[in-house]
Amino acid sequence: MLTTEQIKEVTKDNVINLRFHARAGQGGVTASNLCVEAFMGYGVCQPKFGAERMGAPTESYVRLSSNKDLVRTNEQVYGPHFVAVLDETLL
Per the UniProt record, which residue ranges are transmembrane (predicted)? Predict the structure, then answer.
């Protein structure tokens, strides 16, 4: 659970960046889509994978903000506020 001070620090630029690491078929892209849908503001989910087979490493990026202009970018999230790793063998 985050404290009020931690939430203020994370949202000081009005954008929350998340990155999900998973294997194909584990639901990493679905989890990132759920984060966008659950957020009460603007958000975008960008999966990064090709024509991988089941079990190949995948990444997806989530950008959330109350300002729609701040989430309209197609670049990767290099410095996320939060990282979710769904398979510990990816570490």
Answer: none
What are the tokens at 61?
Answer: 């990026």
Instruction: Report the distance separating Cα 80 and Cα 83, nearest Å.
Output: 7
Q: Is residue 6 a part of any domain in this protein? A: no
CB 63 within 8 A of CB 17: yes
- Alpha-carbon gap, residue 84 to 90, rounded angstroms: 11
- In this predicted model, what pLDDT tens digit does every residue of 24-73 receive, in sequence order? 999 999 999 999 999 888 899 999 877 778 889 999 999 998 888 888 88
Whether 13 is in a domain gets the answer: no
Domain that holds residue 54: 21-90
Cα–Cα distance between 23 and 90 in angstroms, integer? 8
Joined together, the tokens standing for residue 54 give 């089941």
Q: pTM for the full model?
A: 0.81
Tokens describing residue 9: 């620090």
